Amino acid sequence: MEDIIAYRRPIGRRITPQRIEFRRRAQSAEIGTVTRAQLAVLVQNLTCTGVINGTESHLLLALINTAPAESFDRTGRPIVFKSNRQLAFEIGRSVGRVSRMLSRLFDVGLITTQDSGNYKRYPIRNADGEITDACGVDLRILIVRYAELHELVKEVRAEKKAAEAALRRYRGALRNTRYALAAAADLGAAARQRVAGRIERISSYVEVAAKAPSELLRRATFLLEWTIDRLMQLAPRYRSEPAARKTTCVYVENGMHKQITLSYQSKRSNDEQCLAHAEEPNFSKAGASKGAFEKSLGSRQSSVNEQYDQRKALVALQEVLRAAPALRELGYKPNTWADLVRLTPMLCRYAGISEDARRRAVEKMGEQQAAVAVAITLEKTNRQDVSSPGGYLRAMTERAAAGKLYLARSVFGLAARNSLEAKHRDIGQT
């Protein structure tokens, strides 16, 4: 008969690479650099970081207070050799609960253990009665990690204060925006409904403000404050000067892209869709101002026409940012195309573009070209040339499906328009 080897269940403390590493680090502790009082304060503050809970903090504080104060001096050895039964009695928990909590504290690197052969905890003394070694709970790892854990507590406190400040500012901005909307007497019914819908979209995107990340609250606050500026008729910088509004580029973007010629108040959504279909220039009825605009562009129009005659010509990201300064006004400055693509859903929600319209644009154009189209739509909405951004984007999607969309021409047209407005504004200031 073959010998049967019975493999017994492992008995003893669980060993992991992390626990071995913590034991090694504990042996390199410089005793005397941290006092027992400092460790006690640190342990009480660790609960705010989420590393340990309140009961584990209570047990760890009991271990620290058990070690004599002189054991944290240079010649001391902060090792506690109380039994689990005694610790359970002191903190009011069961022995099994104490055992599990000690294992948890070992896993997170707040204690280590020096075990004897029978897992009993006791000190080892010399002939003079001095403790030379001990088998028990070793607290030296706390001395090694004191600076790290103290910095973690400071960071969590700073983040908590920043989150509370962001929450207060967001709630104040939301209240002020709704009050500004109610006080805007000169705002039309359609525009009032559009702004109210924008405010509700921002509020629904944040959802529960008390649980939202501070970065999201800061973004939402910026959008709300920007909406307040628009309601109070504080125009963006590139439209703040009267000379900028009187310049020729209000009526035409450039020789490659026909721009809307009617005022914002009298424009309807179906006209805006026609605007998205109108990509060819038409200067038959242009006045002297348009002729002056063509003359100011000069040879640049012909060179750009030759370079971007293809329908799907790609443009640089910097040109898109020049064409759509509304991105910078909203606090966005994408450094790569991937950043702009990730921002597109947020821009659509702010501009009032439905998810279906954005998804169809991505299907027909691709993610990068759809992001450019959304940026163009947002810029024209910000300029009050478009009052139905969703319809405008859908019209661009239809032209892209038919192979008649010239995104590059639109980008360079808006960029030229912005540069001319800036030049006229500088001349007006001088």
Automatic annotation (TrEMBL):
Lineage, uppermost ranks: Bacteria, Pseudomonadati, Pseudomonadota, Alphaproteobacteria, Hyphomicrobiales
Organism this protein belongs to: Rhizobium gallicum bv. gallicum R602sp
NCBIfam families: RepABC_RepC
A Pfam family of this chain: RP-C_C
Statement: the UniProt record of this protein carries the keyword Chloroplast: no
Protein name: Replication initiation RepC protein
Domain Plasmid replication protein C C-terminal: 317-415
Entry superkingdom: Bacteria
Residue ranges constituting the Plasmid replication protein C N-terminal domain according to the UniProt record: 13-184
Keyword Ribonucleoprotein (UniProt): no
Coiled-coil stretches: 146-173
Keywords: Coiled coil, Plasmid
